[in-house]
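Lab intake sheet, docking and co-folding queue.

SAMPLE TYPE: protein with bound small molecule
LIGAND NAME: pyridoxal-5'-phosphate
LIGAND FORMAT: SMILES
REQUESTED OUTPUT: full 3D complex as structure tokens
PRIORITY: normal
SUBMITTED BY: R.K., bench team

The fields below were copied directly from the construct record.
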Amino acid sequence: MTKPNPLDYVRPNILALEPYSTARDEFKGGDIEVWVDANESPYPSGLNRYPDPHQKKLKEAIARLKGVREENIFIGGAGSDEAIDLVYRIFCRPGVDNVISIAPTYGVYQVSADINDIEFRKVALDEAYNLDVDKLLAAADENSKLIWLCSPNNPTGNAFAPEDIIRVVEKFNGIVVVDEAYIDYSPYPSLLNVLDDYPNLIIMQTFSKAWGMASLRMGMAFAAPGIAELFARVKYPYNVNGPTQEELLRRIETTDIAPNVRETLSERRRLAEALAGMPAVVEVKPSDANFLLVRVTDADALYDALIADGVIVRNRNRVRGCEGCLRITVGTPVENDRVISIVKKFQTEE
Ligand SMILES: *Cc1c(COP(=O)(O)O)cnc(C)c1O
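RESULT FIELD (auto-filled):
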């Protein structure tokens, strides 16, 4: 079976795009001592020079960290949200094309589709939040450009079997985006291992979760070089500021995320076991991420009780497929104890 070249799915105006060329794009190296090419202030402030628009050093570090090539990498300075929006702008013709997504899932995929005037088709996960590959593929027509998969999925918490995801990638004549924001907590390995085998696969990751840098707003997309190059063309020229590039580089080289991830995994289990025994709790959904989706007897009331005691969780009661559910991030052991004691107390007061 031969599949179309993924570049065939790209919007014609993007394929034809002549990207903006910055002063620093035109600079091809040399022993420069006087920089008068970019209309910057010459007075040193620590911030007076434009940053590297291609984030070369950062890409070298991320390539080493992730075991990919620099040509596979896009880095976004507005988190994964930037990569999500760019995917629409690269592949989807407003008012014409559509995308397919699992449901329930991360809300930004739909908001970004709506902003870009792209039809968003939802295919419900089954009762146990499993992927129905055939149903997903059956939702596609000739204008379906993308399928969104999030694994481990937010807000359900479960990861999909890699074989199922690969089956979607192999069968779908379009781009499959797999959001791996929670991959560091998953029992399954990242699909980065097979990135080279699937030219229509885009994988997204972030530094916001296990890396503990949500405030920096650093997201990544990994794809075949031809697609990664399109991200580079369409992005804002200086989309990652200089201090952020330096800070992230420093932290990649000095941080070991393993101890905190280990604690989160053992706390996830402890929190799940404690909650599962409580009368206010109907069911704790299995989680492969750093949060638990918990079905309770009265989600709104428990949500309010938690807030009254200084704890905020995410109320998913009004999300289709998550009725009666709260999403609780695994915190520190002390924080989890606090959640446990409030949920316990809530029940005894009813
Ligand atoms: C938290 C999260 C992200 C990360 O978003 P950033 O914009 O990188 O902070 C991406 N995808 C999903 C599904 C998430 O839950």
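REVIEWER NOTE: The chain has a mean pLDDT of 96.
SIGN-OFF: pending second check by T.M.
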